[in-house]
Design a protein that fits this description.
The complex is a heterodimer of chains A (172) and B (155). By secondary structure, chain A is α/β, with parallel strands linked by helices. Chain A has 7 helices and 5 strands. Chain B is of the alpha/beta class. Chain B has a 6-stranded parallel sheet, with helices on both faces. Classes of the chains: A alpha/beta (172), B alpha/beta (155). Chains A and B meet through α3, α5 and α7 of A and β2, α3 and α5 of B.
Chain lengths: 172, 155
């Protein structure tokens, strides 16, 4: 399965059911392509930079929104860089947070160098921390070097945040 | 003359007055009493983390959910958090309330730590000069009224 195919599948499953956070770079760009969008939908918050902060942001959002299911989608490099937040999420036992990691065991945007997940089974780590299929999903994907060249979309962070905050206003 | 409150009591009152419900922290010796008080007296949801930069992401996520939070860290935590501070908190214009234990006086015998502490305070001053945040001292806590801004408070 390619990253785009995985993101199309995720899009079909979650649709507009709740807030979605995506990690920077290719994951966000392909998520927009999977949705045929130039800009994020109002329930979508892309972390446009700040590598390693995606899961922390999702943890905070899920903690603050106990009655809503929050989904976070990230690559395995991003996941590794923010791995402390995996422990924090486990400690807080956030039942309303679904963590999805697209794992090609590579830094796909940075020359395809391998990540630690090439040698370490991610599912075992998740299991050891108490995550189940309800709140953690690893999707194994194929590595595609061409992904590095996918055109970037200029997104303005303040605009993205405003758009996302408006989504919540319509929900209350 | 009105008696000055202990710092931990002053902070607790300030947080409650400003309707801050979440306390995100990584303990350090200078803020132990404050954290103990916030934890023991109830009314706050305590979120412990493993590394400082996490706190800024969690704070931003809570803000998106419409919740107010305060971060407690030592000044070395600022060093660990410069990436997220710049590219998430400032870039997206998230509010921020951080209490930073200023250990410069206590770390005189640990030279690398002393250097780090001084450097971190200088970096905070630089960020303040760019308009990214406002630096305060805890003695002026009650004068911080713009809670929706980005405030760093030295303890």
């Amino acid at each position: 399965m390619t990253k785009l195919e995985a993101l199309k599948k995720i899009t079909e499953e979650i649709g507009n059911k709740g807030p979605v956070i995506t990690s920077l770079g290719i994951t966000t760009r392909l998520f927009l392509i999977a949705q045929n969008r130039d800009k994020p939908a109002s329930n979508h918050f892309p972390v446009l930079s700040s590598m390693g902060s995606c899961l922390a942001l999702a943890v905070g959002l899920a903690r603050g929104l106990v009655d809503k299911k929050v989904t976070v989608v990230m690559g395995d490099g991003e996941f590794l860089m923010g791995i402390n937040s995996f422990f924090t999420a486990a400690r807080l036992r956030l039942d309303n947070l679904k963590i999805i990691v697209l794992n090609d065991a590579r830094y796909a945007q940075s020359g395809g160098f391998s990540t630690a997940w090439k040698k370490i089974p991610m599912k075992n780590v998740a299991h050891a921390l108490g995550f189940s299929g309800d709140n953690f999903l690893e999707m194994e994907i194929s590595y595609d070097a061409k992904q590095e060249h996918i055109k970037r979309t200029m997104l303005m962070p303040k605009e993205v945040k405003q758009n996302f905050e408006n989504y919540f206003k319509t929900q209350h | 003359m009105e008696k000055e409150l202990p710092i931990e009591e002053k902070i607790e009152k300030y947080l409650k007055h400003n309707k801050v419900d979440y306390v995100i922290y990584l303990p350090t010796s200078k803020i132990v009493q404050t954290l103990n008080r916030l934890q023991a007296n109830g009314g706050f949801e305590m979120i412990p983390v493993g590394k400082e930069e996490e706190m800024f992401g969690i704070s931003a996520g809570l803000s998106l959910a419409g919740k107010k939070s305060a971060i407690f860290t030592q000044e070395s935590g600022i060093g660990n958090s410069l990436l997220v501070l710049s590219s998430l908190i400032v870039a997206y214009d998230f509010p921020l309330l951080v209490f930073v234990a200023d250990d410069r006086e206590n770390d005189k015998d640990i030279l690398p730590k002393q250097k780090l502490s001084h450097d971190m305070i200088e970096i905070l001053k630089f960020l303040e000069s760019k308009g990214d945040l406002v630096l305060h001292n805890v003695s002026n806590l009650n004068s911080i009224t713009h809670i929706e801004g980005r405030n760093i408070i030295l303890i």
